[in-house]
Input
Amino acid sequence: MSIIWTGLVGAATAFSGAVIYANLPTRWTIGHVIPTVAHLRASKLIKIDKEDSIDKSQIIAGSDFLAKPSMVMAVRRPGCILCRREAAHLSELKGLFDQAGVRLVAVTYQSKGVDEFKSYFKGDIYLDTERTFYGPNERWIPMWMGFLRPGVWTSVSASKKEGLVGNLEGEGRLLGGVFFVDGDDMVWSHMEKEWGDKADVEEARRAIQKYIKFLEMREERDCKHYDTTNIPFLFIQLIISVAGVTGRNSEEIKD
Output
């Protein structure tokens, strides 16, 4: 009897330890390194129009992919109900993205489920051939760890209440994120901490609104600079130009 009791106590202790470890911040257990824009620019991407007919010869360099301001969702698994929820919530801001001149796009390292994923996401989807947007330190969360995190089940319940559906097809352990890139700047980012840890839509909204204000201030500053500096210069240039033309005409008349 004592042997059985000892075994049960040992099992309970081991399980408790596993639960505690599984729920530690993932930045401690699997890392948390936000990729630099330079790292993302080294990516190689292929646009996915149909998941079963990808032209892998049409590779787009990351520098070209990020040539315009972009909000990029690195999808963990296109068939996942939790990823589809994040896609749907980000897509609610599509009008604001358009107003700011920011592209809403997604990348994935697996094409399975992309066709269905498109019904939740209002942007183009690309295949990240080298998983660049998931680095530089890839964060793989073990299955047992993922299932022992209460937040995952809370997110699943919320997704189902919103009427979302998903499947279990594909690889789902590699965590993704969302990155707002403008030129050489990482304006805002969200690193997925567990399955279903979606980007905060209100944070994304505030980031875009702040970006719009920045653009307006820059435009206003440029206009003031133009008014106080460029106009006098252009006026002088105009006088010189007119004087030059008049001089040439006078010489032509004398000839």
The CA atoms of residues 180 and 188 lie 5 Å apart. Strands lie at 44-47, 60-61, 70-74, 103-108, 124-128, 177-182, 185-191.
